[in-house]
């Protein structure tokens, strides 16, 4: 699943790094590094992290919540 | 038919074309659909990839924590769009309202949005740029190539230019344990964006992490061996440096060449537009069907004296794209100005650097919180006795406060006695931006155009 963090908004609360440590990691005191492509097995943890973010900086495309959205797009790619 | 009827028809069955299929293009497309546009939507992109995120390329990807080909941006909704990827736009006919593509095809529009962004400025000597081992970093393909080369443990990496991208690349190399030399023409890293006072902190940060930092130095030549592999670099102080990888980080060039001769006000400094993202033509008349957003746009900003700002910022692309898309399908009274306060971040050497406002406008800087020596501080920039920008090193929580100070034109130096201020920060000092007539890698915020308050024209000098 695809995700992006608005790092202008991020204030380094590190909730995501606790809840989904395989996807989000603090780098130094307050820098966040994350993997923009999380494996399906991480889905629950990533969604929990996105929900828990105090500044709501995590944007997730959840293929299960919006069925066919991404596939729909790809069918139009020439 | 009334004007309102025409707008209603546009929203229902109009043709909108977006040239530039990256962050700004994608966000604009999503906004158009969200606001009820049901006509045809075409996105044209020169890269063969779906819209992807670039900031991870110089950080997570170079460190090997993320894959260069898996940074596609999340989609917030189905777009029902016609994607023309892997084919660049080659021309624009404003009278006939059509975009010409590099493969000869043409696409007609009722409204056009240009989000073609920027590309990495190449090494100026083409033969040297061709050497195996010479890289730039802008696209995901660039990142994949560079990451592979770094993984092969080169003897030394030379980073040419210590702006944000160059500094992040040097940081990633050091974290991978690679010897790194950084050659910067200015007096310090980040000097164009943050000034000499903060630049000095960035210099100490680099050296503390083992970077061989050489400021006031230009790379005058890159030399290859008989097989065409980079072997050494020649420096302006007469010395040479043995290196097998050089990353050219000399800033960016705006992708406007395809608009040459179109009559649109587009040039090397971008495409000028009004605060509502409508592009100007070469006569200085605002168009009503061509809009601009993202890195390629130059737009007047009310908070900064209506000067034209070009912002190569992730957040600007997101905000301006949403405003442009809204305005494209709205009547003039419903249109919104692009009033986003500039903000950016950089992660390097374990430090989170963030900024709000336009630091390069600053005449003076004061350390309002923390300490330069600890490399954990908030610097506040003043311009004409008001707060114009702030930068934080590992103190991001302060920036929201300073953003409000900027928006309300709060007095500078700050009148309140702030918490956690050290003796060194009691007085403002000159921010020490370099002479703008000297070329550098370039500030990430450039100010140009005119200010109605003083009727002067301030041009961003040509660089590189």
TrEMBL record, chain A:
Cofactor: [3Fe-4S] cluster
Keyword entries, A-Z: 3Fe-4S, Electron transport, Iron, Iron-sulfur, Metal-binding, Transport
SUPFAM superfamilies recorded: 4Fe-4S ferredoxins (SSF54862)
Superkingdom of the organism of origin: Bacteria
Any single Pfam family the record assigns to this protein: Fer4_13
Function: Ferredoxins are iron-sulfur proteins that transfer electrons in a wide variety of metabolic reactions.
Protein name per UniProt: Ferredoxin
TrEMBL record, chain B:
One Pfam family named in its UniProt record: Pyr_redox_2
Name of the protein in question: Pyridine nucleotide-disulfide oxidoreductase
All copies of domain FAD/NAD(P)-binding, residue ranges: 15-321
Cofactor: FAD
Record's compositionally biased regions (Polar residues): 443-454
Keywords: FAD, Flavoprotein, Oxidoreductase
SUPFAM superfamilies associated with the record: FAD/NAD(P)-binding domain, FAD/NAD-linked reductases, dimerisation (C-terminal) domain
TM stretches of this protein: none
Residue ranges of domain Reductase C-terminal in the record: 344-414
Chain positions covered by the region annotation Disordered: 414-454
């Amino acid at each position: 699943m695809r995700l992006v963090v608005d790092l202008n908004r991020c204030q380094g609360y590190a909730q995501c790094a606790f809840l989904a440590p395989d996807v989000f990691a603090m780098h130094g005191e307050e820098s966040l590094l994350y993997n923009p492509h999380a494996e399906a097995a991480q889905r629950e943890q990533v969604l929990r992290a996105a929900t828990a973010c105090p500044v709501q900086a995590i944007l997730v495309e959840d293929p299960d919540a919006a069925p066919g959205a991404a596939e729909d797009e790809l069918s139009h790619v020439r | 038919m009334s004007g309102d009827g025409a707008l209603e028809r546009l929203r229902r069955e109009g043709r909108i074309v977006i040239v530039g299929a990256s962050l700004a293009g994608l966000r604009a497309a999503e906004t158009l659909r969200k606001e009820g546009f049901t006509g045809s939507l075409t996105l044209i992109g020169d890269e063969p990839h779906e819209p992807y995120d670039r900031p991870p390329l110089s950080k997570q990807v170079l460190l090997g924590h993320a894959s260069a080909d898996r940074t596609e941006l999340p989609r917030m909704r189905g777009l029902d769009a016609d994607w023309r990827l892997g084919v660049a736009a080659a021309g624009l006919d404003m009278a006939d309202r059509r975009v010409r593509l590099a493969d000869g095809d043409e696409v007609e529009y009722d409204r056009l949005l240009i989000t073609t962004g920027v590309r990495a400025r190449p090494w100026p000597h083409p033969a040297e740029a061709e050497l195996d081992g010479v890289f730039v970093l802008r696209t995901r393909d660039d990142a994949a190539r560079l990451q592979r080369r770094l993984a092969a443990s080169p003897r030394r990496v030379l980073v040419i230019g210590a702006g944000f991208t160059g500094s992040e690349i040097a940081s990633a190399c050091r974290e991978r344990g690679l010897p790194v030399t950084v050659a910067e023409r200015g007096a310090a890293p980040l000097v164009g964006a943050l000034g000499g006072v903060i630049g000095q902190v960035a210099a100490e940060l680099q050296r503390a992490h083992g970077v061989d930092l050489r400021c006031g130095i230009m790379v005058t030549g890159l030399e290859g061996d008989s097989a065409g592999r980079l072997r050494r670099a020649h420096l302006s102080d007469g010395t040479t440096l043995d290196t097998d990888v050089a990353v050219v980080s000399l800033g960016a060039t705006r992708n406007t060449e395809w608009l040459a001769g179109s009559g649109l006000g587009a040039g090397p400094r971008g495409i000028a537009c009004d605060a509502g993202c409508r592009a100007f033509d070469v006569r200085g008349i605002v168009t009503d069907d061509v809009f601009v957003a993202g890195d390629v746009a130059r737009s007047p900003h009310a908070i900064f004296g209506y000067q034209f700002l070009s912002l190569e910022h992730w957040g600007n692309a997101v905000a301006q794209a949403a405003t442009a898309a809204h305005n494209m399908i709205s009547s003039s009274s419903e249109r919104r100005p692009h009033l986003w306060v500039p903000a950016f971040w950089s992660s390097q050497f374990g430090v989170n650097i963030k900024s709000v406002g336009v630091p390069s406008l600053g005449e003076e800087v004061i350390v309002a919180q923390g300490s330069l020596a600890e490399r954990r501080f908030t610097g506040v920039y003043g311009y004409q006795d008001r707060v114009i920008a702030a930068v934080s090193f590992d103190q991001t929580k302060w920036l929201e406060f300073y953003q409000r100070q900027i928006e309300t034109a709060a007095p500078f130096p700050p009148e309140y006695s702030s918490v956690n201020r050290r003796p060194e920060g009691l007085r403002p000092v000159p921010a020490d931006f370099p002479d703008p007539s000297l070329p550098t890698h370039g500030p990430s915020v450039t100010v140009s155009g005119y200010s109605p308050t003083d009727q002067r024209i301030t041009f961003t000098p040509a660089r590189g």
